[in-house]
Each structure stands twice: as C-alpha cells, then as structure tokens.
Amino acid sequence: MGEREEKTEVNEISQRQVSIANGGPAHVHAVGRRGSRARGSTAKPSGSEMTFSDVCVDAGGKRILWSVSGKAVPGQMLAIMGPSGAGKTTLLNALAGQTPISSGRVLVDSRRMSKKMKRQVSYVQQADIFFPNLTLRETLRYSALIRLPSELSIRQKLNKVEEIITTLRLHDCATTRMGDAAVRGLSGGEKKRANIGCELLTSPSLILLDEPTSGLDSTSALSLLELLRSQLASQQNKTIVMSIHQPSSQMYYMFDKLLLLAKGKTAYFGPVRQAMSFFSSVGLHCDLQYNPADYMMDLVTNDDSRKILIGEDPKQETRPKKLSAWQRALQWVRLSRGEREGKGEEGEVGEGRTRGNGNIEILEYDNSPSLTSFRAVSAVNPIATSEESSPDDITKEVGPVTMDDDGSETSDEDSLVRERKWPTSWWWQVCVLTVRTFRQSRFAILSPSNIFLAVALSVVASLCWFQLPETEKGLTERFGILFFTIIFWSFNPLFIALTTFPSERVVVNKERSSGSYHLSAYYFAKTISEMPLILFLPSIYMVIVYWAAGLNGWSSFFGSWFFILCSGFMAQSLGLFISATVTNRSTAITMAALCVLTSMLLGGFYVRALPFWLDWAKNFSFVTYGYDALLQLEFTDDRRFTCNEVASSYPSCNATTVLAGYHGSGSGGSPGDGGVITGADVIREYGGVYPLYVCFLAMLGFSVLYRLLAYLSLRHLHRHAH
C-alpha cells in the first residue's frame, strides 16, 4: 500500500470515531504496517528488541498480571510505572524468565524466550546483593573471570572491568568494600551502579532494571538515570526496560516509552510525551503545574479514574464486563483492521491474540498533530512476513521445534547457545570461586569478634582447668574439659555457618539466575576454601588450653587436635544443611539449637547409661564420636592416676585396699600411697567407647551426608522459589 493509499485509509477510519463517553473508542485509527522498523533499512543495532503480548501471570491461585502488552526497542528506555502492588516487579520477572507466565508471549528479536536465552538478558534486581567483604574492583573482577568466555585472556577480562569502572564513574570507590548493614561500605548510589556494572560485563543488548532509583536521594537518582540514558541507551544503543515508582518530572521526561500499570492491567502504553494527551482524550485533564508522574499515580489509585482506564477491578468478575478506555480503543482498532482485511477477530476483547501471519499486535497510543489516535504496532516475526506464510514455511525457516529439559520450546537456532551453556569450564569456575570464597569467608570466620572469643575462652578454660592433678579426683575435671572442648568447637562452627550462609546463598542465587556458574562448582569451592579457615581458631585454643590443663602430652596432642577439627567440620556441615533447607532464620536457629542440645544429652557426659530402648540414638549424636575419640587419646594404657584415699569408685583401687589390709604391707600399699588407675581402667569404667577409626569414619560419613543433603536442598528444594 502506498503512502497516499495509507493516508486515505487512516482518514476513512478516523471519520468513524465515537466518543468515550458514549461507549466508543477515543479517536482511534489503525495504521496498516507490518513492523515497527523496516528491516534492512538501517544498520543492525547492538540492542535487542523485546516484545511481550497479553502476558498473564498467576501466583498462589491469584492472577497478578492481566494481558499486559508492550514493546522495547534499541536505543530507548521503557518505563514501567504504577503504584505498589501494580505488578511491576512481577512483569520484570516474567520478562527475565524468572517467573513463569500463565499465558501470552515474550519475544526477544522475534524469538520466543527459552531457557538458554535467559542468560542473554541482564536483570538488575531491586536489592543490591553483594558479598560485603569484597571491594568493588574485586567483585567485578571475579564476576568477569567467571562470566566472560574462556576464549578471552585474563588480561582482556580485567581490561573489561576497568572499562566498566570508567563508564560508570566508579574510580573513586573501586577499592572500597561493598559493605552491608553490619559492614560500612559503598553508598546506595555506588552500589546501584556496581550492580549495573556486574550485568554490563557480558555486554548485554537488553537490560532490565527493577526500581534502580529506590532508596536513592533525588540527586543520585537523577544522576543514575542520566548515566543510563547517555552511556547505555544513546551511545551504546542498548534496550533498557525499567520499573520506577514515582519519578520527578525531570526524570520522567528522560524515558521514551511508558507502560502504566494498575491492578495488574495496562492503563497506558505509548510515548511518554503523549501520555497527557491520552488522559485528556478520556476526560482526565491534568493541570499544567502538576508533575505528570504524580498525576498518573493519583489516577490509578483513585477508584473512579482507575475504572475509566482499566475497567472494573479484576475481582469483580461476576458482573458483566464494562470495557475500559484502553480496551475500547483496542476493540476499535481490531474491528477496523478486520473490516479492512476482510477478517473478524474472535474471542473476548482484551484477550491475547496473534495475527494470521504470526505478528503480535500491541496497542500503542500515537498523538499526531491532527488526530488523537492509537496505532497497532506489529512485532514482526521474520519467519512470518506475509499473510501467506504457512506452518511448513515457518518450520523450514527456523527448523524443527523441540522441547527443552524444562519443557520450554527451542529450535535449531538455539544450538549455538545450547553448545555453550556455560562461558567457562567447571574447573576454572572452581578455581576462581575458591579464591573468592576464601577472601569473603575469612572476614566472617576469622572476624575480630570470633578471634577474641576463641582467645578469651582459651584463657578462661586454662584458668579453670589449670594443671589438673593426675588423681582419681581429677578424672572428673578431665572429663569436663574434654566435653567442653568438643561442644564448643562443634557449637561455634555450626552457628557461624548458620548466620553467614543465608546471606551468601542470596548472592549465589542471583548469580546463578544469570547462568554464571555450576552450583556444584560453587559448593565444591566453598568446601575446600573454608577448610584452612576452620583450622585456625581451634588451633589457637588447643595450643593454649591443652598444655595449660596438663593433658596427655605430645603423644596425644596432634590426635586430639585432628579430631576437634573433624568435629568442627562435621558441625559446620550440619549448619550448612539446616540453613540450606530451612530458609527462615529464626526457625533455622531453633532447629540448630535442638540438634546441639540433643547431641549434648546423648553424647555420654550428662547421661552415661541410656535406657535400652534409647541407646541407639547416641549413634546419631555428632558429639558422641568426637568425645569418644578425645577420651581414648587422653586415657591411653600408659596413663596412671592415683586412687582416692577412701571410697574409690574403681575396682582396681578397692582390690589394692583389700590386699594391703590383709598383708599389712606390700607393693600396693594403701590407696593413698601407691594405688593407681590406668587409662584402660578409666575407659572400662566409663562404659566403653568406639574405636578411633570408627569415630573418624562416622564423622567423615556424617560430614559428607550433611553436605550432600545441603547441596540437594539448594538445587531442588527451593528451586522454584529462587
């Protein structure tokens, strides 16, 4: 159709306008065009075109989004506005592929979003989640080493980091720690730019941002938007989709397109500078001195004006539907197009539909100088550029469609992405993550407070059990210090893991959502990187307390030290399992306290003779094996302890007393003079213990089991929640 014929058709349709007050559409016309951009007319931009049509999302049996449509093109910024609860974050999650949609379509460069393509879209979430103990430059470097492809050298990856730092103006804070609520670090604006920088490392063509100005002052928010506008949208021609709550007028006019949501429905989609014209066309006039964004918030929160824009509330489904201004305009466009093409649209107005050639129609408000209008924008699919395209043609062009592992449709065009599922090898990921986890965890495990706690308790324990006498009376004290040692170095690593891992898990979930690395690579790296850290504090304790208390010399020192480390490793494994399985922190602490106290009761110190029907339970106490090992290493066969002068509880001492009274004298003498208790007598009187090799194998087995269960919990238990 030529230009003159198209103008004639527009004028013909515009003459059939009916006012909104009478139930007709508000000055609507349809422009018969096959695409929003003529292909081949300009150089291919670096950005990607995202089109979403009639997107519906359900959660918890409730519909959150109702047939939301829109389009974002390279070099422009699309703002998603709406009050709290309007569905802005849900829509972004759906566009990023992190929330399943109930119906509708999301296309990136006219291709359906698949599991593999999700890694090509950068999503900057609202919360700025980082490892707090790493500096900004370290954070970007580790991210670059993992996320950039292995074909690039390390020097090239580091140069990319410096380029991002320069682009986002982060030189002044590059060596500052990220920080969190407990650790002072970057400011809110610097963290937000760092969050964007992590996503820019892979040079994405499409960037989604969830309320990036949240928590920033007006100056920082304006500076951030200017940066996104000038550096990314204008200069690098990237496609930017951003949710924003209530921008200032200066920030509002930085956007190109606006998608206004109310109650999960579309209240407006079109150019930012023409939004006020649309609202005026439906009788909602804004004063000149009013901030447009503030006025829109007032419109979508007011019941009367909201009904004009989106119709009845979604909850009121039992009543006959009264079409909103947007739906009536959409109906008029489609009816006009149906009459023009000789086709009628089937289905309920406002529901998702696709043209016969595979194009997606999206209603966009267009304000021409002579006519207040809407235009139907077609997201042209390159495989369906004519009305005559058939399914066979589509298959021939794209290739056979198959089902991916997650049930999503993929085609042969995804083969390149499928072949390179991960940018780097598993072993390289382990190496980089090991170094990063070590640098992050050393501040948590070897924090000044933990070091002070270990040293202070070592001094207190040394004073309480200083140079224990080698007598029967001192045996009870030796039992006490051994049990206290195994309890403390089980309790401490468990709760360190319990308090630090949840925040670390959030960062890992965020990074893995972008396809950065294998979960197994992270978990293996965490295990091996924290081993040297958990050795340090128990070593300080053992060096101080073991010799101060006068325990069993060098022959047993290293064995006792080894089993204390094994006990701490096993307890840390249990803490990881609990924190990975129970996401609520208070509930996790309750579960951990229950496990620790139960293990203490079954460990053999408080209750030495359990009822026969409960005796089996001690095998599941992580205290039992460590305590048994320390007892065997302390009370070896060559140890000798002097018996009590009266009322000894050991048969060997009582036998010596009887013989001494009968003979009047002898080698044994009186209990106070020469009666001894051997280490074997102590173990025998205690009731028997597991052999050392059994203790080691049991602790190793429980450690592996707990860590395996924690891995499975991370991978499967909370998969959909992540």
Q: Can you walk me through this structure?
A:
The chain is elongated, with a radius of gyration of 35 Å. β13 (402-403) and β14 form a beta hairpin. α3 (136-147) runs antiparallel to α14, α16 runs antiparallel to α19 (585-602) and α18 (553-581) packs antiparallel against α19. The chain has helices at residues 3-14, 88-95, 136-147, 154-167, 188-200, 218-235, 249-252, 275-281, 292-301, 303-310, 325-341, 391-398, 415-419, 426-445, 448-464, 472-513, 519-549, 553-581, 585-602, 622-634, 651-663, 679-686, 692-717; strands at 50-59, 62-72, 77-81, 103-108, 111-112, 121-124, 206-210, 239-243, 257-262, 265-271, 360-368, 371-379, 402-403, 409-410, 640-642, 676-678. 49% of the residues lie in helices and 12% in strands. The protein is an alpha/beta fold and 722 residues long. A 6-stranded mixed sheet has the order 6-7-8-3-9-10, with helices on both faces. Pfam families: ABC2_membrane (PF01061), ABC2_membrane_7 (PF19055), ABC_tran (PF00005). Keywords: ATP-binding, Membrane, Nucleotide-binding, Transmembrane, Transmembrane helix, Transport. One of its GO terms (cellular component) is plasma membrane. It is found in: Membrane.
